[in-house]
Amino acid sequence: MTTPTNQKITATAHTNIALVKYWGKADQSLIIPQTDSLSLTLKAFYTTTSVVFDPRLSSDTITFDGVLASHDDQEKMSRFLDLVRAQADVSLRAAVTTVNHVPVAAGLASSASGYAALAAAASRAAGLNLSRHDLSRLARRGSGSASRSVFGGFAAWHRGTDDATSYAYPIDEQPDWDLGVMAVVLDQTTKKISSRTGMQRSVATSPFYPAWIEANEQDFDAIQVAIKAHDIESLGQITEHNALRMHALTLSAEPGFTYFNGATLAAIELVQQTRQELGGRYYFTIDAGPNVKIIGLRTDLETQLLPRMQAHFGAANVLLTAAGPGVTIQADNPTGKDLNS
């Protein structure tokens, strides 16, 4: 049994973009994926969450951006807090305050930063001092991609076969090359088909799903070679092909569906056209939403693609960022003690 800190613990975690994606679970309850995956953590998009376990509370209280969480969100996050309570052997209820700097449910993986931050803050507030390995396993139980947001830079998620063997780990946390990422926000409304539903339908009904798993394994191995070599062309080509294959699963499901809209297709075409005309090194990817992310050499992104994207979609909807850090944890006390290890 651990002893809760009786302090408010605050954690910040950044979202990530999957370059080699996971799309489908082998175990729904434990969130064990069908494939390994690899991502890049982003500097500009992040979530800050504070947690305190309070003996005066009769139930968990959860606030998002100054507003009390919906009943469904409250229940989901309380179930996650139950995992922390069970691991720490405590029964106290928690007050949770979350501030999101990520458009929610629009394909920018706000759940990744959200559950990574919640896992870090809640576990430390409950008196646990988890290794990053074990923190990634805990975060995975809230959202699969959250396991990777525990780490900065390039991170991978080993699919494993059970709770103990499915975890994320760092590949290159501080990339020392001229990498940039452009996010083109095309729609911030909640998507009509959740990632969970989309995955289940794709796994169950797409005739191409077995081929997806085989191709993903090849992409996972090849992209690590590209990262080590700082080979942006190979990395980018793998990223694009992997994204298009994932979205082919949604189109080939029964009934078929897509996360794209007209603006998504226009953004893809603009990337391809500009790259062909100017010889730029930048490549698109799309997760479970309409928004487009583009990874490439920062110099090329800034000088070639950024002006065209801003002119087409509006400057406020195009953001250039870089690789981001892993999760950080701090106690809210007068000494400002840093709890990162």
Protein architecture, described:
By secondary structure, the protein is an alpha+beta fold. It folds into two domains: 9-173, 2-Layer Sandwich (Ribosomal Protein S5, domain 2); 179-321, GHMP kinase, C-terminal domain (Alpha-Beta Plaits, 2-Layer Sandwich). The chain has helices at residues 71-88, 110-125, 132-140, 146-149, 195-205, 209-229, 232-252, 262-278, 298-313, and strands at residues 9-20, 25-27, 32-33, 37-54, 61-64, 67-68, 93-100, 154-158, 167-172, 179-184, 282-285, 292-297, 318-321, 328-331. Strands 1, 4, 5, 6, 7, 8, 9 and 14 form an eight-stranded mixed beta sheet that branches. It has a four-stranded antiparallel beta sheet with strand order 11-12-10-13. A two-stranded antiparallel sheet has the order 2-3. A hairpin with a 4-residue loop joins β2 (25-27) and β3. α8 packs across α9. The longest helix has 21 residues, at 209-229. It starts with 8 loop residues before the first strand and ends in a 10-residue tail after the last strand. The relative contact order is 0.18. The model has no long low-confidence stretch (mean pLDDT 93). One of its GO terms (molecular function) is ATP binding. Residues 182-315 form the Mvd1 C-terminal domain. Belongs to the diphosphomevalonate decarboxylase family.
